[in-house]
Design a protein that fits this description.
Shape: elongated
Number of domains: 2
CATH architecture of the largest domain: 3-Layer(aba) Sandwich
CATH superfamily of the largest domain: Uncharacterised protein family UPF0261, NC domain
CATH topology of the largest domain: Rossmann fold
Strand order of the largest sheet: 7-6-8-9-13-14
CATH class of the largest domain: Alpha Beta
Order of helices and strands: EHEHHHEHEHEHEHEHEHHEEEEHEHEH
Radius of gyration: 24 Å
Largest sheet: 6 strands, parallel
Oligomer: single chain
Number of helices: 14
Number of strands: 14
Helix content: 40-55%
Length: 402
């Protein structure tokens, strides 16, 4: 029989959590309860708040006596993450669920993010609308809107809570078993590099690899980096590194300062290129910062405005990308498409810019450590089939030689 970990503040929301526990029992699932609140719980948990506080190096009584809510929340989140991960590794539960407002959601979601991808994770939360990145991060946490506040049992809340319970039961009962195991390759793609990645993906799949494509929208890049660090991939086809443009110049799709590090540092074979480094991303055109209003702007769609990168900006992107690639401890190849880096960086297209691209290429040539990274320049456009196939074949050769 499967077990669900029920984690939350059993002091302030005891009735609600007890409802979950009783419903799980009614449908034939075991429960493991962990109390993350700082006061007395409404029912006896399997793991007490004293144990959780201790995991964070805190004495619960002293924590309460400080009367510092932020400090207590941080400590309980830290302790919960440690205990939840350990209990999962010990096989004590197969799925995890919680309820809460901003405080409860911030306590439990770090623990959920620490669990492997694929473990069912549900939080019924008042925060399940708007910007949820701080809770979900790069994980597969499911945030379910609570509709009403998590403050009692009523006709709305009980329906929402029961839906969450039944969703968890369904995920635990029904699992895909007929999955052919193939070596995994990560690839990065943007709308303007889609032809390249589709061609490379098709070829890799023909050769027996499974390709997971990550949309280079900030979250996609961070997710890929996290999964590379976790050991999921045999190779990385990072042909779309546009997120660096947003990171350096204030765009909305940045992936943070550690982009393009994981494969190199963990010795995973990688083929990297400069796909879509001709653009910085903003929202609707009226949201473009005032300092950029005079620039070469392109309305990709009503909600996305692209800004062409300048010579100086391309130089900075090249220097940063070289810096990251020089960290490599395994086989790495940088491929330069000399005829254009995106669908709209081609002759007759709005971002066609040979001078800007040359600044990017020169910065990479100058700063790349050739003893660590092989430089391969092709007189082709990034979306040419020949470029995509060359990149895929390079990666296969490295993976097979490892």
């Amino acid at each position: 029989m499967k077990t669900v970990a029920i984690v939350g503040t059993f002091d302030s929301k005891g009735k609600e959590f007890l409802y979950l526990k009783e419903l799980f029992t009614e449908i034939g699932l075991n429960t493991l309860t962990l109390h993350t609140g700082t006061f007395e719980p409404a029912f006896v948990p399997d793991v007490s708040n004293e144990e959780i506080a201790a995991e964070a190096g805190e004495n619960l009584r002293e924590l309460v006596a400080r009367k510092d809510r932020a400090c207590a929340t941080a400590a309980m989140a830290k302790g919960t993450e440690k205990i939840v991960l350990r209990l999962y590794q010990e096989g004590k539960f197969q799925g995890i669920i919680s309820l809460g407002g901003s405080g409860g959601t911030s306590i439990i979601t770090p623990a959920m993010r620490a669990l492997p991808i694929g473990v069912p994770k549900i939080v019924v939360s008042t925060m399940a609308s708007g910007n949820t990145e701080q809770y979900v991060g790069t994980s597969d946490v499911i945030l379910m809107p609570s509709i009403v506040d998590v403050a009692g049992l009523n006709s709305i809340s009980t329906r929402i809570f029961s839906n969450a319970v039944f969703a968890m039961a369904g995920m635990l009962e029904h699992q895909v078993t007929k999955v052919e195991k193939k070596p995994l390759v990560a690839a990065t793609m943007f709308g303007v590099t889609t032809p390249c990645i589709e061609t490379a993906k098709a070829y890799l799949e023909e050769q027996g690899y499974e390709v997971l494509v990550f949309h280079a929208t900030g979250t996609g890049g961070r997710t890929m980096e996290d999964l590379v660090r976790s050991g999921y991939f045999q190779g990385v086809l990072d042909l779309t590194t546009t997120e660096w443009c947003d990171e350096l110049f204030g765009g909305v799709l940045n992936a943070g300062p550690n982009r393009c590090e994981a494969a190199g540092l963990y010795g995973v074979p990688q083929v990297v290129s400069v796909g879509a480094c001709d653009m910085v991303n903003f929202g609707p055109i009226d949201t473009v910062p005032e300092r950029y209003k005079h620039r070469n702007l392109y309305r990709h769609n009503p909600t996305v405005t692209l800004m062409r990168t300048t010579v100086e900006e391309n130089k900075a992107v090249g220097e940063k990308l070289a810096e990251k690639l020089n960290l490599a401890k395994g086989e790495s190849v940088l491929m330069l498409p000399l005829k254009g880096v995106s669908m709209i960086d081609a002759e007759g297209q709005p971002f066609y810019g040979p001078e800007e691209n040359e600044a990017l290429f020169d910065a990479l040539r100058t700063n790349l450590n050739r003893s660590k990274v092989e430089l391969c320049e092709l007189d082709e456009h990034i979306n040419d089939d020949s470029f995509a196939l060359a990149a895929a074949k390079k990666l296969i050769a490295m993976m097979e030689s490892k």
